Amino acid sequence: MGRYDLIALDMDGTLLTSGQVISQASRTAIDKAVSKGKTVVISTGRSPSELRDYKKEFENIRYYICENGAVIYDSKEERILDAQPIPAEMVEELMKIAEERDVMIYVSSNGQHMCTRSDALRMEDFQLGKFKDMILRTAFLHDDMIASYRKKPFPVEKLNLFSVSAEKREELKEELKRLPLTVVYAEETSLEISPLHMSKAAGLRKLCEYLQIPLDKTIAVGDSDNDAEMLRMAGLSAAMGNARPYIKELCDVVVADNNHDGCAEAIEKYLLGQNE
């Protein structure tokens, strides 16, 4: 029954519909795969704390690759298996850059995301209004996050900088080129910043070593920039129908878009082997 043992699913733009929900078809396919001994993994830029809203839907998913690979999380035991922080001097440099621009700084620390309360209240300014309720509900909100960090530094595995426009994001990305960090696009105006050489691919490799599953027995499904390295590494890569054009070009197959059960298709056809 299929030659793959594990499937890694991106969330935003992949497993989640444009309404930020998981379709019934995808939920059914995930449960079916797990019941047949397959491993289904979430691979996301989100932190573990940002996944709390989906606890019921993920009840059969034990492992999460979070924060673009910087955190490996065991949801059954509710503990971080591995975490790779950004060097403290780089965090400070990023905070200095943020202070000089109209950007929202949003970090993940020990699996918990956090930001400044006043920034969270104006998420619409950064074209991220659809995430506002989730952030207000699940984030740790500081009066001034940068000041809190400088008073008592904490580990940062991933740092997002949200700009007010795509043009401002390009300016910011140019400035960040001088720093030894991994920087990828997210949403329409955001940048996700991780330790150098960190990616979902690195997270998938680490989790597969932990689970003793060969990489050629894995499937990766995604749609955007932060999925690219993982898609290149997996035994089979599947692009969503709504994926960026170059993501489709680098993948082995293309499935339906995120509003038409592309993840369910990938599971049924390729993980469960019904297309072989």
Overall description:
With 276 residues, this protein is an alpha/beta fold. Helix content is 33%, strand content 23%. The chain has 11 helices and 14 strands. The strands form 2 sheets. The protein has an 8-stranded mixed β-sheet with strand order 5-4-3-2-1-12-13-14, with helices on both faces. Strands 8-7-6-9-11-10 form a 6-stranded mixed β-sheet, with helices on both faces. Strand 6 and strand 7 form a beta hairpin. Helix 2 runs parallel beside helix 11. The radius of gyration is 18 Å and the shape is globular. The model has no long low-confidence stretch (mean pLDDT 94).
Q: What spatial form do the alpha-carbon principal axes imply?
A: globular
How many DSSP H or I helices? 11
Physical arrangement of strands within the biggest beta sheet: 5-4-3-2-1-12-13-14
Q: What is the residue-mean pLDDT, rounded to a whole number?
A: 94
| Broad structural category | alpha/beta
Q: Which runs of at least 5 residues are low in confidence (pLDDT < 50)? A: none
User: Strand content of the residues, in percent?
Assistant: 15-25%
